[in-house]
Request: fold
Amino acid sequence: MENNNQITSKQSINKDNSSVQAVDRALMLLKLIGESATPISVGDLAKQADLNRTTAWRLIGSLENQGFVEKDPVSKGYQLGYAIHILSTQTGDPYGSLKRRAYRTLEELKGEIGETVLLSVPKYDGTLTIDQIDTDHSVRLRDYSNTISPLHCTSNGKIWLSLLSEKELDIFLEQPLKSYSKYTITDPEELRKELLNIRVQKVGTAIGELDESENAISAPIFDKKKNLVAFVTVGGPSFRLPEEATLALRNRMLEAAKKIEEQLD
Reply:
């Protein structure tokens, strides 16, 4: 028969193994959430991780309590939380690698077109500008660096919306579309038509929709797994970059996006 010490030792080993397994599963869920372009439900997480829903709920609850994930109020799915942002900023610029790989292409665009060029990334409530290279002209775009712009009235934001599933788009359009200028699209059906055109053209435009004096055009940047990772944008004052000239940049923007994609791992 086993003595008490042997039983206690086995119990301790089993407990340690269980703890390691829980950490491994929690990290797997965290990785799946980070790789998802939109907030993801616990049910989908459980399916992708091959876990039962009860286990997934328990692990997500722990991650949420620690601030590593948070629930999206619209879709009720989960996304990375503020604690992840704090950890990433403590180790340097989380977008440093992307900015370095895109910089030469951004500079080429600025020199060729003569207008402000921006690099942004998708967020759940908008798009975050992580780099902005300004034109040499004294009249230029406002500084959007490190700010989040709305989705429905920006060239990059509308690309993001165009890539959503119908269900996700329906949820987004349940919310009122705020008017930022007299050109902002606030009618959900009109915006749907705009997004259908973006899916065909592969670029997004904003003609005075966020600011009446500014026009812009954007192209999406995908990684090798076809995940959306960023946008490249050219924008300028409407008197120097009118609608016709903005639309004429379509092919050049797609070329720039493809060139940046080739620099990604």
